[in-house]
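Question: Send over one sample?
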Amino acid sequence: MILNLIKYNKKTIIIIFLTVLIIGSSFISTTNAQSKDELTDTYPCIAERLKEFFKDKKYDKIQIYNKDNQDISIQFYNENYNHYINNDMNTILENFLKNAENLAVDEIDNSIQAYENTNVSKRSRVLYTILKIKGKATSSEFGYQICGRASFNETTGKYVSISPPGISVYYYPGTFDSYKYQVTGDYGYKNNKRKVYYKNIVITMWATSISDRYGTSKVYFDPIYSGETLEF
């Protein structure tokens, strides 16, 4: 995993290129080319989280959001619980594709972490989404966390610097040879520099595949709007 930080203007746009090298390659396909029975195998990570969601009714640990970043967890639970009882995860995944955009899970410690005395960092919940191309779902799911980092003055109790937003990849598709990510967002200080914030995070991702027959090809995915905010 190679992380390259590109110079940025404060409180505007940060670009982070994260290249994930993967052994082997195959071309991505949209769900239109898949049968209904393949969905659980296509999206194993999201399928597993949805099973946990229905099994334990984990509204406090797992939330489902639509494309407008509205929490539709209870509605999704009520509309799909019978499918879960009937062990029909494929229909549940079909409905997730139609109605949901992000699935957020509190499965990793996301409390403020201190390091090097006056530096702190924080991560968001783990967010899962299905990558799309021109509005159509692909066969790739993606899991990540939003990351923020800042430094403060122990004497004044105020922040003195803030790093641009980044992401930590938690789960990535293994379809292509390499991936690159561009992360943009708003960030800055609040409450007379006693707090920092990150919001309006957008991830743009593209991938390349290399083959002896077709050479190098590049695919651009639709922007990922996380809807997640950080404040600490």
